[in-house]
Amino acid sequence: MKLLTLNTHSLSDANEDNKLKAIAHVISSRDIDVIALQEVNQTMNAKSISCDEHYVGRDIIKEDNFALALSKLLEGKYYWTYIPVKVGYDRFDEGLAIFSKHKITASENTLLTTTNDYSFWKKRNALGVEITKGTQSFYVYTAHLGWWDDDEEPFIKQWKKLNSVAASKDMPVYLAGDFNAPDVLKDQSYETIKNDGWKDTRDLAKKVSGRFTAQGKIDGWDEAVDGMRIDYIWCNRDENVLSHEVIFDGKNEPVVSDHYGILMEDNL
Fold it and tell me: pLDDT truncated to tens, each residue of the chain (268 aa)?
């Protein structure tokens, strides 16, 4: 099973069409099974649109929705779902999306923050789906968590909510996304996740390529100019991970966001 995660920072950069085409090309050419996306945007005042049967979500989709555009480029070969999480940059419905070549049999929308105020930029949710591949079922969550030392919505409270739902599943579970959790900071977010029993798939991989997933100054990390590892794919078991590679970094596929992606393959 090949799983890709990417914080798309969508509709915020120039050359959006080329960015979409690059992502779609990689998904198709590498035959990726599941794609977990964050910062999936649609303009709030854009027109609502109907989707075909491959959209299995329940939320309203606008005509410029980034996931909708990606689905069209993938020519309906993937099931997909989307949730809006909050207002982004005063003009977007900013949300999360998951694409799957295999049937999505269930989905969850979990509020992670204390606040449920859609207009508050610190609001966070996680999108989870159950996927059935042949006779095997597994869960994938995509999430974009906050910062460890945030006074209003600290990471630890968000993580406890995500962990409580994800750890309850009696099947393979993958947590993918932007965790804002640098692995070099001791006794903070990264170590908290590991101490709760989650496996960093980079540690399990037989073949590893790349390290940093964000380079230079990005939102929320203005002081970080030398690169950070803040995007992850975690699993709840010691899976046989074949490879873990940083992608869309300008070396391994073109840059398409202010984050790089991660492509993980295991034998599921």
Answer: 999 999 999 987 778 899 999 999 999 999 999 999 999 999 999 999 999 999 999 999 999 999 999 999 999 999 999 999 999 999 999 999 999 999 999 999 999 999 999 999 999 999 999 999 999 999 999 999 999 999 999 999 999 999 999 999 999 999 999 999 999 999 999 999 999 999 999 999 999 999 999 986 555 545 555 689 999 999 999 999 999 999 999 999 999 999 999 999 999 9
Which are the contacts of 233, defined by CB distance < 8 A and separation ≥ 6? 3, 5, 174, 175, 176, 201, 202, 244, 262, 264
Domain definitions of the chain by residue range: 2-266
Q: Calculate the alpha carbon distances from 93 to 44, 120, 233, 234, 261 in Å.
A: 6, 12, 25, 27, 22
Fold of the CATH domain 2-266: Deoxyribonuclease I; Chain A (3.60.10)
